[in-house]
Amino acid sequence: MPKKRENRCPECGETATEPYKTWELVAPFPDKKMRITVTVFGMFKCPSCGKNFRGVVSKAKMGAEGIEV
Ligand SMILES: [Zn+2]
């Protein structure tokens, strides 16, 4: 199960749960264990004050042995 990350509004500190837009960023180089880190970013809208902000949705490491989170 992927870890749930909390993304808090930088303005008021309210926690935004679901991003309205996500995209993946793949690290160009593997780590020592030859795994590639994939970071999923998301755009969130604060449910309290309506501010849009960017946060990390999840990170995954992909290697020969499968996916680690
Ligand atoms: Zn807010």
Describe this protein's structure.
The structure is a single chain. This protein has a domain at 17-62: SH3 type barrels (Roll). The model has no long low-confidence stretch (mean pLDDT 89). The strands form 2 sheets. Strands 3-4-5-6 form a 4-stranded antiparallel sheet, with no helix packed on it. The chain has a two-stranded antiparallel ribbon with strand order 1-2. 0% of the residues lie in helices and 51% in strands. It is mainly β and 69 residues long. The chain is built from no helices and 6 strands. Bound molecules: zinc ion (ZN). Residues 9, 11-12, 14, 46, 48-49, 51 line the site of zinc ion.
Describe the structure concisely.
The chain has strands at residues 7-8, 15-16, 21-26, 36-45, 52-63, 66-68.
Please render the helix and strand layout as text.
Layout: E1 7-8, E2 15-16, E3 21-26, E4 36-45, E5 52-63, E6 66-68
Bound molecules: zinc ion (ZN).
Extract low-pLDDT stretches: none
Estimate percent helicity.
under 10%
- State Rg: 14 Å
How does the overall form come out from the CA principal axes?
elongated
**Beta-strand fraction estimate:** over 45%
Main pleated-sheet profile? 4 strands, antiparallel
Q: Roughly what is the average pLDDT, rounded to an integer?
A: 89
Structural class call reads mainly beta
Number of helices: 0
CATH fold assignment of the domain at 17-62? SH3 type barrels
Task: Let me know the number of strands.
Answer: 6
Just name the CATH architecture of the domain at 17-62.
Roll
